[in-house]
Amino acid sequence: MSSKDQELCSKLSIRQINVDTDVDDFMVWASDDLVTRFCRRDSYKSKEQAIEYINNVAMNHPYYRVICLNNKAIGVIKVKLHEGNDKCRGVLGYVLAREYWGRGIATWAVEMVASTIFEERLELERVEALVDVENIGSQKVLKKAGFVKEGVLRKYCILKGKIRDMIMFSFLREDKS
């Protein structure tokens, strides 16, 4: 990471989303087809869609945070928690506004969550990340952040109408014994 990128990362934070102050920033990445290319949902076409999503999904999600630069939301990172016999694992997801790609920000955010999630969510033993085989950028981010590639899941899901292969990455709670 360059010194310029290190300086940038010193201005980063992760916080809960606020519909009143973050919706316009949210629309920057949520309406960008290139950013949402590997997301399960389509790009948002209206601010009203974004407000509905933030109010009904993001605000009620157990771990949904915005990635901020000088407190301006530039992306989102979340961990979906499982229940029942699967409550020991969560699934990480993140997006970042395109203008911030390649500057170490996504890696910083993933490292930040990986270093704190097990303290915040005591039931977790493992955080997984599923990445499309063509999403080379996210594969690099996860590797740099300490996630381990476990394997390729063939024909794992339908993404934007096409059956896709996914790569499973994981990050495990450190064994303290």
From TrEMBL:
Gene3D superfamilies: 3.40.630.30
Residue ranges of domain N-acetyltransferase in the record: 12-173
Parts of the chain that traverse the membrane: none
InterPro entries, per database record: Acyl_CoA_acyltransferase, GNAT_dom
Gene Ontology molecular-function annotations: acyltransferase activity, transferring groups other than amino-acyl groups
Signal peptide span: none
PANTHER family assigned to the protein according to its UniProt record, in alphabetical order: ACYL-COA N-ACYLTRANSFERASES (NAT) SUPERFAMILY PROTEIN
Protein name: N-acetyltransferase domain-containing protein
